[in-house]
Amino acid sequence: MARAASPARRAAFTALAWTLALLIFFPIAWTILTSFKTERDAIANPPVLVPLVGGADGRPPILAGEADDPAEDATGGPEAGARSPGGPFFRATLENYRVVQERSDYMRFLWNSVVIAGGSTLLGILVAVPAAWSMAFVPSRRTKDVLLWMLSTKMLPAVGVLYPIYLIATFRLPLGGGTFQLIDTKPFLVVILMLINLPIIVWMLYTYFREIPGEILEAARMDGASLRAEIVHVLTPMAVPGIASTVLLSFILAWNEAFWTLNLTAVDAAPLTAFIASYSSPEGLFFAKLSAASTMAIAPILVLGWFAQKQLVRGLTFGAVK
Amino acid sequence: MATKASRTAARLMMAPAVTLLLGWMLVPLVMTLYFSFADYRPLRNVFEPWAGFGNYERFVTSSAFWPSVWTTLVLVGAVLAITVVLGILLAMLLDQPIWGRGAVRILVISPFFVMPTVSALVWKNMMLDPVNGVFSHVARLLGAQPYDFLTQAPLPSIVLIVSWQWLPFATLILLTAVQSLDREQLEAAEMDGAPPLARFRYLVLPHLARAITIVILIQTIFLLSIFAEIFVTTGGSFGTRTLTYLVFQRVLEAQNVGLGSAGGILAVLLANVVAIFLMRIVGRNLDA
Amino acid sequence: MGRIELKGVRKAFGEVEVIPPLDLAIEDGEFCVFVGPSGCGKSTLLRLIAGLEDTSGGHIEIDGLDMTDTPPARRGLAMVFQSYALYPHMSVRKNIAFPMKMAGVDAAEQARRIEAAARALNLSDYLDRRPGQLSGGQRQRVAIGRAIVREPSAFLFDEPLSNLDAALRVGMRMEIGELHEQLSTTMIYVTHDQVEAMTMADRIVVLRAGRIEQVGTPLDLYRSPRNLFVAGFIGSPRMNFVEGEEAGRHGAHTIGIRPEHVRVGEGPWRGTVGVSEHLGSDTFLHVHGTGLAETITVRAGGEVPLRGGDPVSLAPEEGKLHRFGPDGLRL
């Protein structure tokens, strides 16, 4: 900026931007807030907005910056009906998180998500790094076509290949005495999601590698480095930021993938997408528990996403917008 | 620009990625193509390997087909319009000197990282619910009658949810593009006496044209295959059945594989039309 | 030792032949400069010698051994790149040590050679910095240091000074020259700047479109350019060329005369001064309307009182005229 904007102008833009940003963020914030309410508070009308921590036994209520563990203070469980403090206040509770974990075994879904997203990312990187090295540093006339063809596989609608994949997944492989199916197994989903994200991983790495001057790799060659030494000692250390961003984005995309994970899992391999989908039919009062479950499903990835936001542009536009 | 030795190494190192993707694309697609010409209903033990174009004919003439195409077009079109227009405005706003831009950026981008099943459920229950949703609270506060969004206006509701998810993407990409605009160009235009609106119209918008195209194409690819948002909200009822969802129902719910495969091939063709344009743009960028 | 001989070396990218078969011998200890306009194939030729490109034909011999198919790492050469090509994630010390690490030189010897190189190149205070924290000139020295410690049989320089500003370039030119004096190792130096070529080279190879136009010492090229291209390329400002009747008078198709060989004063050529560039020590006059060529450039003394629009008469030094035939070759 060559000129400093006038403070009034800046304040007006700031106010407008923050208002809109908070509006956009509101559903997430509201979900997180509701996850700390009792089911009764969650459907209070008018809604209760301000969480209190502790304070049930005559101590002055403290505005909650962070939710401590209120369960020890609560007289009976929230389900038993801890009395609301009235007004826009409610007493924060971690009860929902406990219930969600107990009732639907959150940790198992979380573990599945971690394994599937992590596994597919790792596998994808292992396959993509050599491919991206080749295309970035030893381009041939066909390199461009290969890259575009890889991109085209990403555009294949999933429904176009749904049944064949389903058929392969449900095929009974003879194994030992019994039979074995790929459906609802983590390795199968790891491979499927790796294939789905492979074009993006290759493209992202390719755009990062292309920014590394070829002369540096040539210098290594002149300095007596073998191909392996060149990749291990020179290329990889220089590409660490790019590889890290790629890992992050691939992990996020795999974590949130909801077509194949919903259609190819049932119980054993079901990740968090399926865990949340099981909340789609309401059962009694469930807003607070839904909120807790949702918060647990998105929190890890939201934080990762904040770190990855800049790389998102490069990764998802295939380097066409910089 | 390399030696024979490095070219050989390069080919070897590319082989795994190419082989995997080739298998991933070719094998299932050929199978789908094959099934689309067969009468295949596994639950009824029907398998007639050659049914000609019967499946295509039945899929296209079924009463569900044209409404699903229409629904798809409305969903994609409406979400594109909303996200692109609001995205441009938001990007312009975020490009201004504001306090806490980093934090604002993080808030705005967040919905993109929410998994589709979560955002659909949160909107369905926490926002749009006619009794306890935030929207109904607000309506009552203003003295209006709460509105049952998902029953009364199911498609607009899904448009709303999907737009919320994709607005951050459009904004982020457009913001990146806005920021790459040469400041001196804008200052030169100011010196030439162009008012802000004219600067936007003649400098900013043309500069954004390419980014806008990219946003439209990439979103279209993803929007054509929207699934989870419909799956957990309306389940495809009330006129929210898109082509993708229709194929899903035919293949997995009704287990009419032949019919569904014909639909799948049609969906592939539809996506290809968009893909070709996108690849042209990206390909041109590769030469630069 | 470092005698490099190219025998019928040829390079084609697909259908395009960038270097037609070419023979050249570079003697041990020689400072040889490849010069030519951009795209003349000089860098490609250097990369062929380095082994970074395959030849399409012919042989490359280093000290009598055929190295045509030897990978770059085993040719015993060191290269300094235009962009310096330092490893950004390594300190200066590690950058310089890298080739020795790859060659398995023991630690004590590594330290000794690093110390020596750092002292010679004035880098002792910067050994623990990253390349990103150095100035352009320092980076250039690190790149040279990395080349020195390999103790190569020849150094290859690919336009090493083109990323430096004018003042630094002059300084580095001297340093590289001194380095050559000290080491007396063969150096092949690629540049598009004929001033660098003239000041540094023992021998200059002028290239155009992959062909050698002339090989010779700087003064050879200056005094007797073999053809119009070399005549125009070597020397600054450029040689004046005159065709037609005036050339015919000297029995040539084209005559060339350098600006420093035209005197202002009574003479056969008359014109009007256009732009005059006063450099202090010299004045370059661009004279129009002579009827000989569009512009005749003249180097006059620093205090010539002529200005734009003044009429002027010029006298070429007859003995310094270069005469060329219709095929462009020197007569």
Q: What can you see in these coordinates?
A:
Chain A: This is Sorbitol ABC transporter membrane protein /mannitol ABC transporter membrane protein. Chain A: It is a multi-pass membrane protein. The complex is a heterotrimer of chains A (about 325), B (about 290) and C (about 325). With about 325 residues, chain A is mainly α. Chain A has 3 domains: about 1-25; about 35-95, no CATH class; about 105-315, MetI-like fold (Orthogonal Bundle). Helix content of chain A is about 65%, strand content about 5%. Chain A contains 12 helices and 5 strands. Chain A has helices at about 5-35, 40, 95-105, 105-135, 145-155, 160-170, 185-210, 215-220, 225-255, 260-265, 270-275, 285-315, and strands at about 50-55, 60-65, 90, 175, 180. The two termini of chain A are about 20 Å apart. Mean pLDDT of chain A is about 80; it is low at about 55-80. Chain B is mainly alpha-helical and about 290 residues long. Chain B has one domain (about 65-255, about 265-285): Orthogonal Bundle (MetI-like fold). Chain B has 13 helices and 2 strands, in the order αββαααααααααααα. Chain B has helices at about 5-35, 55-60, 65-95, 100-110, 115-125, 135-140, 150, 155-180, 185-190, 195-225, 230-235, 245-255, 255-285; strands at about 40, 45-50. The longest helix of chain B has about 35 residues, at about 5-35. Chain B starts with a helix and ends with a helix. Chain C has 2 domains: about 5-225, Rossmann fold (3-Layer(aba) Sandwich); about 235-325, Beta Barrel (OB fold (Dihydrolipoamide Acetyltransferase, E2P)). Chain C has helices at about 40-50, 90-105, 105-120, 135-150, 165-185, 195-200, 220-225, 230-235, 245-250; strands at about 5-15, 15-25, 30-35, 55-60, 65, 75-80, 155-160, 185-190, 205-210, 210-215, 240-245, 255, 260-280, 280-290, 295-300, 310-315, 320-325. In chain C, the strands form 4 sheets. Chain C has a 6-stranded mixed sheet with strand order 6-7-8-3-9-10, sandwiched between helices. In chain C, α2 (about 90-105) runs parallel beside α4 (about 135-150). Chain C is globular, with a radius of gyration of 23 Å. Chains A and B meet through α1, α4, α5, α6 and α7 of A and α1, α3, α4, α5 and α6 of B.
